[in-house]
Amino acid sequence: MLLQRLWCSGGRRCCKPTINAARGIATTRVSGYEKIAAPGEVSPRRVVPDDIEKPSYVRALIARAADMHTTQSRIKPLQGEMLGRMRDAGRLAADTLAYTASHIAPGVTTDALDELAHEFIVSAGAYPSPLGYMGFKKSICTSVNNVIVHGVPDDRELQEGDIINIDVTVFLNGVHGDTSRTFAVGAVDRSAERLIEGAEKALHDAIATCGPGVPYCAIGEAVEAVADFYRLSICPYFIGHGIGPSFHAPPAVLHYYNDEDYVMKPGHVFTIEPALNEGSPEFRILADEWTAVTLDGQRSAQAEHTVLITEEGVEVLTRRKDEDCERAVE
Ligand SMILES: [Co+2]
């Protein structure tokens, strides 16, 4: 849910959209997958019970974009019982993602996935962070095929051969946990498989570099190496971020080569969320003012975890039960 800067050249259209009469969604079919060219129908805002604590941006109705200008002193370490709360929020985000993803199948709408995630989060006594964040209307982000990030769940049915990123953030006991992953819908082509694999590997290699005393720029270096190997481009406009009582806070976590000098310290909690593209890294935003699609119509995949820097190394707060992604620093 974070756009670093808007460098969109806009206005250029890669190919002519056709309207799918049944759903009224403008899409374009290209070599085996359907391009998202315009937003679909979005269902009414879902209800969160009154007794669930809401982030301040929901109460204030308007959230302002976080000031991500990063200096060492602007990165606030979390400590004590706050870390336990971060672990709980991270675990709930991971469980929500696994539960929602288990319902991915051809014919299922992204709106149905949103409803499943919403109910799961609310039943756990938590608030779905994206709902009402800077006007976002849904509880998760669902980014299909050429959508890079911030896809808004709608009435489009998933199709065999699609890829879909599901991005879940929950607000539990006053803190946020944020995770995402890209999934194949049925059988996908080889290029899509490599794209998904590249995004996961970029995330895991970046996590493996983390630990106390490590400069944040090591993350960009690790992602670049994986992108090079897979011959994918890094979409530099969507960055990782500090997270805790705020959805987005310093540090800005860059997924490309940089020479920022801020360093990881115990208690730092942040996301790593590289988005890799098959083609060019450039993007544009659809009319809903959220959905970010590749300018060239090629596909994009993203993977994200929330991590905590400890005295010994790094702890992945949104780790899946079946996932091995931690490294103890010797
Ligand atoms: Co995030």
Task: Provide an overview of this structure.
The chain is of the alpha+beta class. Helix content is 22%, strand content 23%. The strands form 6 sheets. Strands 4, 5, 7 and 8 form a 4-stranded antiparallel sheet that branches. Strands 1-2-3 form a 3-stranded antiparallel sheet, with no helix packed on it.
Task: Describe the secondary structure blueprint for this structure.
Blueprint: E1 18-20, E2 25-30, E3 33-36, H1 56-59, H2 81-101, H3 110-123, E4 127-128, E5 141-144, E6 147-149, E7 163-172, E8 175-184, H4 190-209, H5 217-230, E9 233-234, E10 240-242, E11 249-253, E12 269-272, E13 275-277, E14 283-285, E15 292-294, E16 300-302, E17 305-309, E18 314-316
Antiparallel strand pairs: 1-2, 2-3, 4-7, 5-7, 6-15, 7-8, 9-13, 10-11, 12-17, 13-16, 14-15, 17-18
Helix pairs in contact: 2-3, 4-5
Bound molecules: cobalt (II) ion.
Cobalt (II) ion binds next to loops.
CATH topology: Creatine Amidinohydrolase
Present as ligands are: cobalt (II) ion
Number of strands: 18
Corresponding CATH superfamily: Creatinase/methionine aminopeptidase superfamily
Instruction: Work out the count of structural domains.
Output: 1
Termini, distance in Å?
34 Å
Domain Peptidase M24: 85-311
EC number: 3.4.11.18
InterPro entries: Creatinase/aminopeptidase-like (IPR036005), Pept_M24 (IPR000994), Pept_M24_MAP (IPR001714), Pept_M24A_MAP1 (IPR002467)
Binding site for substrate: 150, 248
